[in-house]
């Protein structure tokens, strides 16, 4: 394992970075370095939870498939049947929208209407804005449009059907069965996990998220416009955005690795192998000029083999892997599995500069370099 210390550079601790490798039986630390909290100087560990960004989408998809296997949800049923109101793209008002379309970012939704919906507002009201929608292509097929807004809709469906608040549902359906101390927006994590929270810093050194000083946040959702944060009267299914299903999972690198191990082992009685294959199977071919998402299934991305114009190379061996990337608040993260070889890597890196344009591609240079160091650690351990 590479250094776990956090030497200062010009008086500032380097960004926290953790990478672990795993196979079906074992998790191995590869790179663990930097400060989880620069104020206290606390050094990061592979068990420290961090806001993992869009890998949350894959984790939410696991909860969806658990409900599908239980007969509570159907990937191809009109979600209006679950929501209790009619959800339609105004450009195609006769075409039903399904969980399959939402999970694969092919429901015609986009983030222009904003996916952060405060307490007191609703998904239904937000999606009444025409700016939230793109028209279908000829033949009625929606183009791939990566949009965070899909996941508040999915969370709303899960709440309505289960009769359970989304954060609690995910704890019961996903984190508890897998034995992982993880949560959404710090709701459901243990006190010990809260005390080990990784503070997210931007590349400028500015605090971005989760500088909590070891205490739980006073408000675990996006507060109402008047500043209130009382969930007593919250109506289930009206605002699946509250617990940030698109990016708000707090989980450690070791916790991600345990999810990866479950997938490598074919489900471990948590999911069936058929459900895992359903998640991973790419939906459609057209990625609408977004070369990073060359092949995308149900909240599961495939790296490698995307053909001309694809720019998703991350690992030196160029082998195909499934998983998901994350990016938010100066963090880059990834959970990637080589299903054929039965191996994987989970990582996060903080303090990465924000992209300045979509043309920069998916993986940051700092992220690629960090993964290369993790790969070198694997090579060194094999000698």
From TrEMBL:
<dbReference type="InterPro" id="IPR001466">
    <property type="entry name" value="Beta-lactam-related"/>
</dbReference>
<protein>
    <submittedName>
        <fullName>Beta-lactamase family protein</fullName>
    </submittedName>
</protein>
<dbReference type="InterPro" id="IPR012338">
    <property type="entry name" value="Beta-lactam/transpept-like"/>
</dbReference>
<dbReference type="InterPro" id="IPR050789">
    <property type="entry name" value="Diverse_Enzym_Activities"/>
</dbReference>
<dbReference type="Pfam" id="PF00144">
    <property type="entry name" value="Beta-lactamase"/>
</dbReference>
<feature type="domain" description="Beta-lactamase-related">
    <location>
        <begin position="34"/>
        <end position="357"/>
    </location>
</feature>
